[in-house]
């Protein structure tokens, strides 16, 4: 068997295994079974790493990037299709996808450029409230998603000066303060619904109402969440293309240079402020677009959705997956969003467990579960 | 020959203070086209400070800097680089987790298209630019070490000290600067490695027409071999200037280095 055929088989098999695992994980309810499945998966990954299997799989993936992308999209579609009639699994999947988009935004900010942002949930929230306010107007709802991003970016510009002037802990404090301000502002602002929040009209594309189930035949009625999953998946793919293009260009290089050594970067003409502003704005834009669709999907938002703890969840996804790592972000978003839903036992201890996991990760694997690799400007090309 | 005499860089009364300490005290200096100038002096005598003031990392407290006929005294680091000054650092400041190619391309900033839309949407043109610059970086790196040129996509963190120095020098040279500032290139290397690096520097100078170099160095063998002219600093002040042989035999210089009386 040739190498390339072997690679292709490995990738397809891997995608199938991931799809099957995801379906099983989402479908089973019994707590013991879920634990067993997680332990099994962990053992599989650790064992594979010990035997060098994961490394060889990673090489196969790197050699066939296009196939890998399509295989993983196909796997996602398979999982989504499996749950076509069930509201709750689809809602969870759509939530994971939207978290992935928001975390991609954070990845541009501190994964690539080193600009810390502990107010991720606030920018996500700006998108949500944009959808709530504009949802009832005559603005096309697809445009509202875009506007959610744009308004989040504009609101973020308030923070640009403090973010440029501060570094490290101080920048963290500035963004934390902004997040708290945002929530307080929403709570006292009556036009935005105050602490009770606002209802949001659902997505409607050219007369196609996203909030109606899709009746295919008498015994097949697809959950209306499918609409949101499909749109979210399209947005994830677009976000991914954007992220990849940024990473594999001089922009990505500038971001890295700014993060790793500002002084050296300045000595080679890199305008630190410009690239920090670009990264911060772009990141907030992505968080805003994700928020807008999220609000339409939930149909109701309140200030309590955008607390500091929600920002921390976004940050923990980025750290857990690996700074700047796109596939890592997806894996981590899946774990962080789904685990508390599946393991009811941990729900009360959610933050305790997060904290422990984060400390363990930072201690033993600071580069994250799926660390970002070296920049491959042109896939498969090494000069 | 007339071009050889063109002045590239002039310091006039350049002064820099840190609180009560005068790191650079009324420093006058002139560098002509193609010249290699050695900047020597004990630790803390102002050698690196003069680089930092020149490249815009520190502001000057007095005096002026003229580069290719322009007053660049208060220019930010980015603008100084655009004008044609590139440097290395005393403690290697490469991005260790990035590849060799990435690091060299950081130094090539002004010759790459940095437009947002170009980078995101014109992938074909970007691809060509990447490949062209890759070829150029490879050629440059080959002068220093052909083996290194084959490892363009390896992380810099995996390399030996001498290779890192070479990459730092390539990062500075890739943008075709008029003035190269080398801050203790031999630091942390063995004698043998230092000799190799010296050869490389001499070769580069032969290749690039009109490249002036300022070299800060403690390794006197290196200074003797490569420099055309030396300036000795002590407590931020110039105490001596001339060819290495004359400077080395100067009484003041010996006192500064060995402690007089």
UniProtKB/TrEMBL annotation, chain A:
Q: Which GO terms describe its cellular component?
A: plasma membrane
Q: Highest taxon of the source?
A: Bacteria
Q: Which InterPro entries match?
A: ABC_transp_permease, LivM-like
List the residue ranges forming a coiled coil, or say none.
none
Q: What's the protein's topology in the membrane?
A: Multi-pass membrane protein
Instruction: Indicate the transmembrane segments per the record.
Output: 9-28, 34-55, 67-84, 90-108, 115-135, 141-161, 168-186, 225-243, 277-301, 313-339, 351-370
Q: Which GO terms describe its molecular function?
A: branched-chain amino acid transmembrane transporter activity
Any one Pfam family here would be: BPD_transp_2
Q: What is its main location?
A: membrane
Compartments, record wording: Cell membrane
Keyword annotations for this protein?
A: Cell membrane, Membrane, Transmembrane, Transmembrane helix
The molecule here is called ABC transporter permease
Q: Which organism is it from?
A: Thalassospira profundimaris
TrEMBL record, chain B:
In which domain of life is the source organism classified?
Bacteria
The entry's cellular-component GO terms read: plasma membrane
Q: Which residues form the ABC transporter domain?
A: 9-260
Which UniProt keywords are given for this protein, alphabetically ordered?
ATP-binding, Nucleotide-binding, Transport
Cite the GO molecular-function annotations of the record.
Answer: ATP binding; ATP hydrolysis activity; L-isoleucine transmembrane transporter activity; L-phenylalanine transmembrane transporter activity; L-valine transmembrane transporter activity
Q: Which SMART domains match?
A: AAA (SM00382)
Q: What residues form the membrane-spanning segments? A: none
Q: Which GO terms describe its biological process?
A: D-alanine transmembrane transport; L-alanine transport; L-isoleucine import across plasma membrane; L-valine import across plasma membrane
What's the protein called, per UniProt? Branched-chain amino acid ABC transporter ATP-binding protein
